């Protein structure tokens, strides 16, 4: 069987999907990533052109098995997209965002607001609450733009006659604060649900229409699921679980724990963004200047972090050679689904914290014990620069 793997992506430009940042460096909105709408027609955006390239491939009616890897840049910041999507969401109709200012949040929350001068947004008419609602509305408008492009793609798939033999998977590599907790963009050691609970949509021949898996899954599961759907036996070590049964209507595992990790360690300074070995800190006119400056001046605020999440609880454990337990977090998701009250260290939640650390220990031993090279290993790699990804098998 001859396989075809195609990655469709155009050379990226800072204005490939975004309008300009019209605020001056002294304006508190300058470092918020909120830009004006994209000035040209939507058909001129990088994302639109990439989708059109995928549509052209489908219309060529390929006769051999194929995979198309199609990364889109939206809704990644800057918060911008073409009209009418930019203005399509009424900010006044949105539910309240997660509020800022909780004293039991990790240090990077307050530091991001300080370094990006976000607290000065309260000097604007309507204050930061109104501003962040407007920013969040643009973020949702960007998602609507991606939805529109996805609709184009699905229509082309149907017209090509390949609909009944093609699996479509949509997923994202990370979420975004987009105003929640009074923050913007993301943070390397931030592991809140707004950053880690991302879309995973799969349409596959023989799948159960409309079925929603309520139990935990993780992005690691995409590889074994894709291999099983393609009747390929994995020849490499991996730790995901195939979701084929769930695609056919089965429920997931309600006892499953899923993992995420991020951040850097102070004994490996080259890993930090802004390190001199990788170009250093950009000039203040860069919207990323505060982020890199904070990492270099306050490295513990981006220390190594790992999370374990079940249906009912989430533990985020942060550790570093300079601080064995740095602003860890524990949330009772049944009582606090928005992760507003950190109960780490409270006596009544000591057992939950210990259970989470036990999950970490078991997972570490399991992955190390099985970390042996496979015979004739096959390595399949997908790399995402952006947010919304679509693949066909």
Main traits of this protein?
single chain, 393 residues, alpha+beta, 4-stranded antiparallel β-sheet, 8 helices, disordered C terminus
Briefly, what is this?
The protein is of the alpha+beta class and 393 residues long. Helices cover 26% and strands 12% of the residues.
The count of β-strands is: 9
Helix proportion: 25-40%
Mean pLDDT: 89
Count of individual helical segments = 8
Distance between the termini: 14 Å
List the helices and strands in order. EHEHHEHEHHEHEEEHE
Q: Output the strand order for the largest sheet.
A: 1-2-9-3-4
Q: Which structural class do the helices and strands define?
A: alpha+beta
**Low-pLDDT segments, ≥5 res:** 369-393
Instruction: Characterize the largest beta sheet: strand count, sense, and whether it forms a barrel.
Output: 5 strands, mixed
Taking all Cα atoms into account, the compactness measure Rg is 22 Å
Report strand %. 5-15%
Q: Categorize the overall geometry.
A: globular
